[in-house]
Design a protein that fits this description.
Number of strands: 0
Structural class: mainly alpha
Helix content: 55-70%
Shape: globular
Strand content: under 5%
CATH architecture: Orthogonal Bundle
Number of domains: 1
Distance between the termini: 14 Å
Order of helices and strands: HHHHHHHHH
Mean pLDDT: 89
CATH class: Mainly Alpha
Radius of gyration: 15 Å
Low-confidence stretches: none
Largest sheet: none
C-alpha cells in the first residue's frame, strides 16, 4: 500500500471505529463459531474490536470459499486474533496515536518500555497467545494468533489469509 492509500485507509479505519456496532445477528454468528469459554473472552473485547474481529472472520469465510479451504477453525481464530487487546483496552484515539507515532518514529516507538498502550498495541498477538494457551485451543490456532502481525513469516497460507483479512479492516 502506498503512503497515500495507507493514509486514506487509516482515515477509513478511524471512521469505522467510531460508527462500529455489533448487533444480535453478529453475536449469534460469534456464538455459532466459538465455544462458551471463548465467547466469554470475546465479549471482553471493546465493541470496536468485536466489530473488527467479526468483519475479519466474515472475510476469511469468503476467502476460504474462494480457495476451497475449510474455514471453520480460521473463523474461530479470526474472532479471537485480537483477544490480547483485552489486557488493556485502547480507544480509537489511542490506536490512532500509536499508528501516527509508529510512522513518525519509523518503528522506534515499539522499543519504549513501561507503556501498557504500546505493549498491547504492538504485542497483542503474544498477549493473546498467553491468554488463550490455557484454554482447549490447539497449538496451530495459538501460533496463528501469536503471529498474525509477523511479517517475517511468508510461507503459510492460513497465516497469510488471516493477515490479509485483518489488514482489510
Amino acid at each position: 500500500m502506498g503512503d497515500e492509500n495507507l493514509n486514506f485507509y487509516r482515515i477509513k479505519q478511524f471512521y469505522w471505529s467510531i460508527i462500529s456496532g455489533v448487533n444480535e445477528k453478529d453475536l449469534q454468528y460469534v456464538k455459532n463459531n466459538l465455544y462458551e469459554n471463548e465467547y466469554k473472552l470475546f465479549l471482553k473485547l471493546s465493541r470496536q474490536e468485536q466489530y473488527h474481529s467479526i468483519k475479519v472472520a466474515k472475510d476469511i469465510e469468503k476467502e476460504c470459499l474462494d480457495k476451497e479451504i475449510d474455514s471453520k477453525e480460521l473463523i474461530m481464530i479470526a474472532l479471537l486474533h485480537d483477544i490480547g487487546k483485552t489486557y488493556k483496552k485502547l480507544n480509537v484515539f489511542n490506536k490512532s496515536i500509536m499508528v501516527l507515532a509508529d510512522k513518525i518514529t519509523k518503528g522506534k516507538i515499539r522499543n519504549i518500555k513501561h507503556s501498557k498502550n504500546i505493549e498491547v498495541y504492538f504485542n497483542h498477538g503474544n498477549i493473546g497467545y498467553e491468554l488463550l494457551k490455557n484454554l482447549d485451543i490447539n497449538e496451530r490456532a495459538l501460533y496463528l494468533i501469536k503471529n498474525h502481525h509477523n511479517d517475517r513469516i511468508v510461507d503459510d497460507i492460513e497465516l497469510n489469509i488471516l493477515k490479509k483479512c485483518d489488514g482489510n479492516h
